[in-house]
Amino acid sequence: MTPETGRTDLVARDAEELARLVAGTRNVLFDFDGPICRLFAGHPAVRIAREQVLWLEEQGLAGLLTEAERASPDPHGVLMAFAARHPGSDLVLDLEERLTRAELEAAPDAWPTAYADALIRTWVAVGARLAIVTNNSARSVEKYLRGRDLYACFAPHIYGRTADLRLLKPNPDLLLKALRAMGAAPRTSLMIGDSQTDYTAARTAGVPFLGYAGNDTVLRRLLADGVPERRILRSLEPLLHAVRTG
């Protein structure tokens, strides 16, 4: 067997497994930022994270963050780090609202993930029910979806960040809310995400997981977090093909 033949066999086995996964899926839970779009493509997240730190400095509170947290390029990381030290405080609510406003501003300029729009519409067309479970604001998700004429594919099942930050992924609360509202069994559902928090939440909720790695960094991170390589897609195109043919 040549290396080329071996690779062809591997691709065929991966396609067969994906087809089986799709065949058993009736309900799909999407993460938002990554599998559906790059929310901060036009408004870099690192800038937003820096603005959060500057705001905390203006309140005289930046010292509550570690040096690594102050340098974080992830605005969610800054929010969660501060919330861990001041849970439920008005300042946490203010910081969360600032992040929500930044997400709303970014939504119109977000870059759609390749094949995501077609995948969403095709899955709805063949009878699947879709939900979004995200640590982003539900308001920013709705704004993006309406701009892409995709809102009806998910409504009313959009579950996003609330004031109780303890319930964000990796907590399975968002997934469980979606499953209950849809009347969906975990075993007939599928979570599509791109992070350890998505994977952990899905495992805790008993929902099969499919990882999306849009770049090598995400791929390495998912593999390091224990996601089997056969359950990680570098593109949504094979999944779209499986839904269309299955």
Task: Report how far the terminal alpha carbons are from each other.
Answer: 30 Å
**SSE run:** HEEHHHHEHEHHEHEHEHEH
Strand residue content: 5-15%
How many beta strands in the DSSP annotation? Answer: 8
In spatial order, strands of the major sheet run: 5-4-1-6-7-8
Computed over alpha carbons, the radius of gyration is 19 Å
Query: What is the tally of helical segments?
Result: 12
Low-confidence stretches: 1-10
Structural class: alpha/beta
Shape, please? Answer: globular
Determine the mean pLDDT: 90
Sketch the major β-sheet. Answer: 6 strands, parallel
The helix content is 40-55%
What distinguishing features does this structure have?
disordered N terminus; two-stranded antiparallel sheet; 246 residues; 52% helix; alpha/beta
Structure explained in plain terms:
This protein has helices at 3-23, 45-58, 67-70, 75-85, 90-106, 116-125, 138-147, 151-154, 173-182, 196-205, 216-224, 237-245; strands at residues 27-30, 37-38, 111-112, 129-133, 158-159, 189-193, 209-212, 232-233. It is an alpha/beta fold and 246 residues long. The protein is globular, with a radius of gyration of 19 Å. Strand 7 (209-212), helix 11 and strand 8 form a beta-alpha-beta unit. It is built from 12 helices and 8 strands. Residues 1-10 have low confidence and may be disordered. The two termini are 30 Å apart. It is 52% helix and 11% strand. Helix 1 packs across helix 12 (237-245) and helix 2 packs parallel to helix 4 (75-85). A 6-stranded parallel sheet has the order 5-4-1-6-7-8, sandwiched between helices.
